[in-house]
């Protein structure tokens, strides 16, 4: 019988809820209706009955706390403004003048200077007397020698008897145009440059010879490392065809300078040969080559 009562009560409650869509479930009338005929001393009834007041108390406590948290600092700054510090703080700053750094100087390789001292030798001269004695022309009674007689004889100022010549004798007669005859006796004597009529000459003269030496002479690396300097005295022969032969070192300084001097002299192009009595002759030249390091 009691179960039927509760069943009837629940059906009635559900019908009231379904028919009243705007019903407030938090009202006390609903709570009383739900717990009608039940034990109201149970905790659920008390919580339902006091839920409205508890919610209001919690809301009233929470709102002021949030207001204080967010509005409190602004209110505090309004009544206690931050005073600006107007005192200027001077910090001494020491400025150092920056000295520009000098760029690193790259040491240039020491230039190599090859000096050539080739002074042309002075020609020997003798005082010429202007007192010329005029004598009568003697009569020529002696016939001039024939060409076949000159084949085995040396030309000379006088005709004299003796052993026939075995050397090379070349006789060139005139060509009918009035040109003088030239006689080449095959002289292999090496003359000194100071004792001949015309000394050998390099193409371009002394200036051309100096340019040739400077263009071809190289300072040996061994001599540069050992700081070897000085003059190499060298001797060579200018042949009758202008070529350079018999290159010798008279006084050297070592360090490869002697060999370098000989190499350059042997590389020389042909000269204009020296002349003696209107003939090309062999002439020996002696000159110094200066090796100097520029410090």
From TrEMBL:
Residues 204-295 form the TonB C-terminal domain. One of its GO terms (biological process) is transmembrane transport. It is found in: Cell inner membrane. GO terms for molecular function: energy transducer activity. It holds the Pfam family TonB_C. Residues 157-172 have a biased composition (Polar residues). Coiled coil: none annotated. GO terms for cellular component: outer membrane-bounded periplasmic space; plasma membrane protein complex. PANTHER family: PROTEIN TONB (PTHR33446:SF2), PROTEIN TONB-RELATED (PTHR33446). This is TonB C-terminal domain-containing protein. It comes from Pedobacter antarcticus 4BY.
């Amino acid at each position: 019988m009691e179960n039927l009562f509760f069943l009837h009560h629940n059906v009635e409650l559900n019908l009231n809820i379904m028919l009243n869509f705007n019903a407030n479930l938090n009202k006390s009338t609903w709570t009383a209706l739900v717990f009608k005929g039940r034990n109201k001393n149970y905790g659920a009834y008390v919580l339902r009955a006091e839920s409205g007041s508890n919610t209001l108390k919690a809301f009233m406590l929470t709102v002021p706390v949030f207001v204080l948290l967010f509005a409190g600092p602004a209110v505090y700054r309004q009544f206690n403004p931050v005073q600006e510090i107007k005192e200027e703080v001077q910090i001494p700053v020491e400025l150092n003048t920056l000295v520009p750094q000098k760029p690193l100087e790259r040491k240039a390789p020491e230039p190599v200077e090859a000096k050539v001292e080739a002074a042309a030798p002075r020609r020997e001269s003798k005082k010429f007397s202007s007192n010329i004695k005029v004598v009568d022309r003697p009569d020529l009674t002696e016939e001039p020698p024939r060409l076949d007689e000159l084949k085995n004889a040396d030309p000379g100022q006088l005709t004299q008897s003796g052993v026939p010549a075995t050397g090379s004798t070349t006789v060139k007669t005139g060509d009918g145009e009035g040109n003088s005859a030239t006689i080449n006796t095959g002289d292999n004597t090496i003359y000194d440059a100071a004792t001949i009529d015309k000394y050998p000459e390099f193409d371009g003269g002394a200036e051309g010879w100096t340019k040739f030496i400077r263009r071809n002479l190289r300072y040996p690396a061994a001599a540069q490392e050992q700081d070897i300097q000085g003059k190499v005295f060298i001797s060579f022969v200018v042949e009758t065809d202008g070529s350079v032969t018999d290159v010798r070192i008279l006084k050297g300084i070592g360090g490869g300078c002697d060999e370098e001097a000989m190499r350059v002299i042997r590389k020389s192009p042909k000269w204009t040969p020296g002349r003696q009595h209107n003939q090309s002759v062999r002439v020996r030249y002696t000159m110094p080559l200066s090796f100097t390091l520029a410090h």
